[in-house]
Structure formats: structure tokens, C-alpha cells
Amino acid sequence: MMKKFLYTILLGSFLASGSSFAEEETPLVQKMDQVARSLKLLRRAKDDYAKCIELVREAQQGILDSFQYMPVLFEKLPEGKEKMEAEVAYKKSMADSYKALCDLELAYLSEDEDKIDDAMDVVKKSRKDGHEEFIEEE
Asked: Which among 24, 53, 77, 130 counts the fewest CB atoms within 10 Å?
């Protein structure tokens, strides 16, 4: 039961998107929007590796800033072990997202398009998994 609950909550860890989710404009959502904006701008920066590295670092900072907040969904959990486990799972998910962004930064530093594509695939998967897990759908 707990594992299923945690799995349905995890996707809020990366890049909250507004209209299709019930999340309100919390500080966490604002930080995740910052991450999303930075990552979307990567497409425009394309071969400007210095700009891409700057954008990835902005996204990393958004993730780091997000560690101080918890998803709104956690407010519905009663205090106790289950809630603490959910919070730890969230923090682990955020750490995985941060690691994925560090790998993306390394890929941009290498200026190897294959490495960049592979790293971006991991970032996108991390985003999707986090939203499925930690954002309550309407």
C-alpha cells in the first residue's frame, strides 16, 4: 500500500506543470517551474554549450532550493512513520533529479551530442517519474 502510494506521488519532484495537475502555486511549484523554464530554454540554446551549461546550473539550483519544501499531497498524510517515509522518498527522488542534471552538465561539458541526448533522456524520465509520484492529478 505504502509503495503504491509513494509511486503515485513521486512525479512532482521534477518540473511541475500547471493546468493538468491540482497543485496550487506553492513555493515548491514555483521552484519546479523555474527548473522547467531553464530546461525548455535548452532547445533554443542548442549548440551554445556555455549557455546550455548555465541553464542546466539554473535548473540544478531550482532543485536544490526545492529541498526545503514538500509536496502539498503530504499535507493529507497523518503525522507518523508513513508520512516520514513519503518525505524521505521525495528527498531521494529530488536527489536523483539533481544527479541527472549533474550528468547533463557533464554531457554539455563534453560537447558530445550523443551523451547530451542520453543525459537528457534520463532527465526527462526523472521528471516524468517525479510527477507521477508526487503530484495529485485532478
From this structure: 24
CA 11, CA 20: separation in Å to the nearest integer? Answer: 13
Q: Residues 6 or more apart from 45 whose CB is under 8 A from it?
A: 51, 52, 55
Dihedral angle computed from the Cα positions of residues 57, 62, 67 and 68, in that order, rounded to the nearest 10 degrees: 130
> Ramachandran region of residue 46, left (φ > 0), alpha (ψ -120 to 50) or beta?
left
Burial label for 74, CB within 10 Å (0-12, 13-18, 19+), is: middle
Sort 72 into a burial class: Cβ within 10 Å, 0-12 / 13-18 / 19+: middle
Provide CB contacts within 8 A for 67, sequence distance 6+: 91, 94
pLDDT greater than 60 at residue 75: yes
What pLDDT does 48 receive?
95
**For position 135, what pLDDT does the model report?**
56
Grid cell for residue 72: 502539498
Cell 505504502: give the residue. 2
In tens, the pLDDT along 93-135 reads 899 999 999 999 999 999 999 999 999 999 988 876 655 555 5
